[in-house]
Amino acid sequence: MSPLDVASAITRAHHEEWARVVASLARRFGDLDIAEEAAAEAFAVAVERWPHDGVPPNPGAWLTTTANRRAIDRIRREKKREDKHREALLMHDGDPHPPLGAIDDDRLRLVFTCCHPALGMEARVALTLRMVAGLTVPEIARAFLVQEGAMARRITRAKDKISTARIPYRVPSAEDLPARVSGVLTVLFLVFNEGYLATGPGTDPVRPGLTSEAIRLARLVRALLPDDGEAVGLLALMLMTEARRTARVSADGELVPLDRQDRAAWDAVLIAEGHRLVRERLTSGEAPGRYQILAAINAVHTSARDTGHTDWSQVVALYGQLVRLDPSPVVALNRAVAVAELEGPQAGLAAVDPLGQALAGYRAYHSARAELLRRLGRSDESRAAYDRAIGLPGHSAETAYLVHRRDELEGPLG
């Protein structure tokens, strides 16, 4: 096997086996620090040995065995065997206690541990990316625009809280599962959104590494909870959104809105999978949740050959359903934009304007007003709305688009 093939095998093993190895060690030793460090050491050993010894027939088993040995060496070295229970863990591969929870899967237990509601949302996201996705601390720090040391401390505090608060390493009981799944999906959605359009102005606007990790974790949750409609809905939403990624930013670094994207550049395979998942949920007969409705809206958009052929009445109706589930001003704004496409810019503006107080600091509100005023021929007001949007925090790619649109007002309206 060539060095390139070995390197590819190690990369593939890291993507496919990291969560499984960490989860196995966390179950056995009950310590996330030990699990993380031993898993990292096992992969370091693989990088050293596999080019000479060859890739083992079962890379996951090799990595798990190696990581277990490293963990035991560390415990013995640091004399952390506090009692006979600890020694029992060192002597036996299995957990002496049966797992508690609705589903028996080490990886799912790890996901729920990292996303425990006792942790702050930032800590949940960081810990999930480190322990489940296997991203390094520098990678996570870069993704969320914080110093490496600050991110390391955030992850350490989260692990310490899990330890000191005795947060159980298990899947919640059946009656608690729906509420806890919701928290997990929220974390994954935040990770995906940060990758799809970064919040910081000085970074790449789109980060495929984050979106792909979020999709991979969403696939894991969906595989482990196949009957959870919102898990299916979130995966479908991610797939159809990811399908448009390459068309989202122009060669000049400007954000490209949906109505101006080259639909031929969209990934038809991802769209087809997303549509299939949406249809699967429609045939279930269950009332849809937030992610399922958002996925259905994306299915309508990605079914149309262009904006003019979009079924806007269906989009407005779906947003009406979403408003009933989530009556937030941001959802109301999205519905208002759809109303403008269905009934015209005056109707859209009438729906947007009442949201001004709640969304005064929200860039998308002012940019939506600017576009609607532009379509109504109210250029001075449109320019002022663009200026207000440009002055608010956001990514430089989005700013470039808004500046371009504002400056076009000097000439013919578009």
TrEMBL record:
Origin superkingdom: Bacteria
Domain RNA polymerase sigma-70 region positions: 17-80
Domain RNA polymerase sigma factor 70 region 4 type: 115-161
Residue ranges annotated for the DUF6596 domain, each copy included: 180-280
UniProt GO BP: DNA-templated transcription initiation
Keywords: Sigma factor, Transcription, Transcription regulation
GO terms for MF: DNA binding; sigma factor activity
InterPro entries: DUF6596 (IPR046531), RNA_pol_sigma70_r2 (IPR007627), RNA_pol_sigma70_r4_t2 (IPR013249), RNA_pol_sigma_r2 (IPR013325), RNA_pol_sigma_r3/r4-like (IPR013324), TPR-like_helical_dom_sf (IPR011990), WH-like_DNA-bd_sf (IPR036388)
Protein family (similarity comment): Belongs to the sigma-70 factor family. ECF subfamily.
PANTHER family: BLL6612 PROTEIN (PTHR47756:SF2), BLL6612 PROTEIN-RELATED (PTHR47756)
Protein name: RNA polymerase sigma factor
Organism of origin: Sinomonas puerhi
